[in-house]
Amino acid sequence: MQQGLRAPLGSEMRILIADDHRLIVEGVKLKLAELGPDTEFSEAMDVDELRRVVHGDEAHSFDLALIDLAMPGGHGTSHLAEVIETLPQLRVIVLSGSEDPALMKDLLAMGAHGFIPKAYSPEVMLSAVRLVLSGGTYVPPMMLQESHASPLPPSPNGGSLADASRSLEERLRKLLTERQIDVLRLLSQGKPNKLIARDLGISEGTVKIHLAAIFRALNVRNRVEAVVASRRISGI
């Protein structure tokens, strides 16, 4: 398989599972085997093993990696950052016992394509993996709930949150073109640049130009913050 290309669902696929709990590893393998009969798995039980796999000769053959946030030998999120930096084309999902929305936001901003709390069911995990393999980003519902709970900027006349949401929507529609609003709408659905470009019939380069304008309008630094902000606007 060429570097940077993901296998279609149902065809040969290689998945890396990095977790030091054997029951977790075996449970993940059992469920993800439903992706197709040709799904192959590799394992890493600590950060040293993970590093050897990531820097090994077959590293670029992986389609997906599910990586535990708290692994033996790890220091914070450094092992995840190393994987993302070393294999930028690899789809990476974080597994964690934490359900902290702020942590999820930081990891997605780092470049992870999903965050699955270990308390979630195997069915949710499988659905999240399918979304990520198809090019999307899995954002846990609790992160979205947190974003909805965050206060919106007050409206000029001190009105309600709904008024503030409408005010922000009106401001965006003055700052952005209709095509940029379309890009923002697809971005809020977790779609990557490639799918946004395909859906709108434009180039990925044009999508990036529109995203830069969207980030400025929303006063955010990256696509994760843009997604969170856009889901607080009812009309987008």
Give an overview in words.
This protein is of the alpha/beta class and 236 residues long. The protein has eleven helices and five strands, in the order βαβαβαβαβααααααα. The chain has helices at residues 22-32, 47-54, 78-86, 101-110, 122-133, 141-149, 161-175, 178-188, 193-200, 204-218, 223-230, and strands at 13-18, 39-44, 64-68, 91-96, 114-117. The protein has a five-stranded parallel beta sheet with strand order 2-1-3-4-5, sandwiched between helices. Strand 3, helix 3 and strand 4 (91-96) form a beta-alpha-beta unit. Helix 4 packs across helix 6 (141-149), helix 8 packs across helix 10 and helix 10 packs across helix 11 (223-230).
Short description, anyone?
By secondary structure, the chain is of the alpha/beta class. Helices cover 49% and strands 11% of the residues.
